[in-house]
Every structure is written in structure tokens, then in C-alpha cells.
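INFO batch 0412 | record 1 of 1 | parsing
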Amino acid sequence: MTDQDIAKEVELKHINSIAEKLGLDPNDLELYGKYKAKLPHSIIDMDKVQQSNLVLVTAISPTPAGEGKTTMSIGLSEGLNQLGKQTTVVLREPSLGPVFGIKGGATGGGYSQVLPMEDINLHFTGDFSAIEKAHNLLSAVIDNNIQSKTNSLGIDARTVTWKRVMDMNDRALRNIIVGLGGTTSGVPRETGFDITAASEIMAILCLADDMEDLKKRLGSIFIGYTFGKEPVYARDLKVEGAMAALLKEAVKPNLVQTIEGNPAIIHGGPFANIAQGTNSVIATRMGMSLSDYTVTEAGFGADLGAEKFLDIKCQSAGLSPKAVVITTTIRALKYHGGADLKELTTPNVEALRNGLPNLEKHLENVQGFGIEPIISINRFVSDSDDEIALIQEFAQNKGVRVALAEVWAKGGKGALELAQHVVEVVEACDKKFTPTYMWDMSVTDKIEAIAKKIYGADGVEYSALAKKNLRTIADLGLEKLPVCVAKTQKSLSDNPKLIGRPKGFTITIREIEIAAGAGFLVPISGNMMRMPGLPAHPASENISIDNEGNITGLF
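INFO prediction complete | emitting C-alpha cells
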């Protein structure tokens, strides 16, 4: 059966009964129908957060379809609950870009899903829409101020870096000109669109402590310069209050359920290749306030999501995971060993062996943070016994824990071995993680630390624009911010064609965006785009709805 077929067979529990598992009063919930609810910030208990156990699920460098981190995270949470450990899985919200693009939905798969999957994948509780509107309100106010004769800050339109966003893959909007049509239609200037997941508002929502912190961060968004070379921030336009008002409900995490009727909190959705790639600080703290174990995921491989989760989110929020699960698939290792994408379901032990250095590097990265990794083999029906045995042998030789996980086919039962490993690692953990860099280092030293330690690069080169950006960052006094590198997920390098464990390469930074509100800088490497495009045959071709409202084609 398809993921959607499996999901439709489940008799959903009322969200009140899911809340009761967390010890919550139904009166605490803000219901969105019978199966979804918003959770108030008052639930967070910082004392419990410090006592709870946080587990991060990451992965090796993926194939285009992904390696199942969400499926693994959900299955692991089910397995931990079956072991008697009160556990909540905390995830990101799906973006419509991948839903209608190449990856499909982001609610897990098989018997390891969060429900109701159609609602979560399509609009959910409107958080993305609210983020999009708050972002574009600022865009509109900027252009209005440039046009205004009576309420003008004297903004130099040539210096404005703030774009617009929409939650769809639309490459035609990457670079546009606004303000055409005469003097009443604005001042013509070049700009463009990013996808909503790459919006600084999304990053701010996911790093804010509460509404007051959210509003302060919104006001700190850097816009550009006046003609007098003075920096302009969103607070100068007096718009942060209105933006925060639009985010009134979006700032609250969402409670749903897993297939096995366990709690799941879903909130925020930044991509890891162009943003920080993890759910909100508020949602993670909420899960840790309500559970003994909180399982969360960070997008793409450990070189992207896990690095940003630890160096940005955990540093900012004072969190420290006690175990890291590295989701590994035989098909991805064969891809990194040189096998053709069309042949990944064909047994090929030699290609798998050649791809193991990619897994090796991700293991080293996690160990470099001072956290014990656990390899989780996300089993597919095409995996051969010889291929599975080779990974197990590799793990044994490295002295690393490994578990065969059959979460797609068996749900929590397929994760019991993995869950037991996680419990043992968590109970043995008695220290905080070690970051890749300290925030007070220079910007170039921080970027170099990531490039050399995490990616395995020989060094970093900067374009003329990036060097100019570095001077701007210094002039604005923002050198102590952490860095959130935008890089391809297809390779440890910034060249998607360099698969496996590339060596002898240099990372090229072509520009550095300033996300002063979010509290980080965004070095953009290679040809990384912050507005993806659709494939030749997008997933939208398979999606439809009938007269009874039944949606088909989601996966």
C-alpha cells in the first residue's frame, strides 16, 4: 500500500486524548478541528527542559528522494514509547515546494507517519501562510517608504536586500523587476522571490524564545542603507508590531498524532540547505517539557542540518542532545559509491563498499561534537542481506553502534533495537556537546572551521561580492553572529557532482546575506539557489481530489 493508503486505514484519536497522554488539560488546547491543536507557550517548563533527554536524527548525504529522517524519527519515537519511555517526536512542517516538487510530503512513511497526513502536508494550520504574509508586509512597507514623499527614510533602493517569498517552487520569480508602470506604481528596482522556508521570518520564528523576543528579532531585520549611508532596520519602518500580529497564532506549536497514537509536535519549516533546517526552539522546549525523551530531526546530512542544529539552535537555546542517530540507506551509499540513480535498487556490494567513506565522514562529524552516534539502517525491500552485513561489519570495525530499522514496514516494532541503543547512549551521556566554532571568532574563521572540519575542504575562497559583504558585516558590528552556510545537500562539498567523500576541494563563498533578526549570517556557496525549481514531472501531476473531498496522490 502507499503511505496515503496506510494513513487512511488508521482510526484517528481525538486530539484531546493525545493531549491527555502528555498530562495536558483539554482546556489548554486551541483546537483546529478534531485532530489538530495549537499549544500555548505557558506549557514550557525550563526546569523540565534541563532534565529531559534530547535525541537528534540526522543522515548521510542523501539521494534526491531523501533517506527517511522523518520516517526514522517517528519510528524511533514509537519504539521508545513501546519501551516505556514517555516520548514526543518534534518535527518541521512540510513546505508546499517539495510536496508538489520532487520529494513529496514530509509526514513520514509507511507505518511510521504523523497524522492527519493530508492536512499536515497541505496548509496545516496556516503557519506558512502567516510567515509569508508577515515577510511580504515588510516588502510592501519598504517599497512604500521608497515611494513616499512625506514618510520617507531616504532608503537607497539599490541597497535593499529584502526580497519577497512564496511557498512554492517557482524559478521564474528568482529575479524580477518591481515598480514598473509609472510614478504611481512605485520605484523600479531589481529584486526577486525566495521560497518561504528560506525567509528570515521563518528563521526568526524558529529561534525566538517567545512573542516578545520574536518582536525584537523582527525589528532587527536589516533592510539596506539610506542615501546618507545609514543602516536601515525593520524597526525604523515601525512595522515589527504588525508583523508580529500576523504571527500571533503561527508562533504556537501544533499538536498532532502518530499512527500508533503517540504525541507529535510540528512547528516551523526552514530547509537545511538554505536555512537552519530544524523546527522551532519553542516546539523543542515544549516537547522536552512534556516528555522524558524528545526525538527531533535536522534536514539533509549531518554536514548541514546537524551542524546548524548544534552550532546555531543549540548554542542559542542552551540545548544539548545526548545521542545522534545517523539515518543511513543502502541506496544512498551505493549512489555515493558511483552507482547510477536508476540502479540503486539492484544489489551491488562493491558500489556500497565504495560509498562507505561518506558515512564515515558523517560519523566523524558527529563524534567531533563529542556526541556518540548510532547508525540506523533504514531498510528498503530491495536491500540484500550481503549489503546489510557489510554496513554492520563496517560499524563493528569502527566501534560504532548500528541498528537495522524497519520502521516503514513495522512502525515502532521495527525500531526497538534502535530505541534500546538510544536509551543506553542517553543514559551514559554526562556532558554537553562541543561546537564547531565559538561565536566570537571572526566570520572567516567560523566559515573556515565548518569548511575544514565538517565538509573536509582544504580551504575557502571568497568572491569580490562576498569580500564586500564581509566589510558590511564589520561596519554593522555583526561579526559575532554564527554562520548558516547555504550549500548543496548532494555533496559534502559545494559541488553536487563530487559524491562520496571528496577531498582536495575548496569551498567558494559567492556572497554573504545578513539575517540580523534571526541572529546569523548566511554565506552562500557555489550556485545554491534560495528559490528551487520544479522537476520536469512534478509530484503535482499525481495529486487530485474527488467530490467527497478525498485527496489522492500524496506521498
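INFO post-check: The longest helix spans residues 127-147.
INFO record closed
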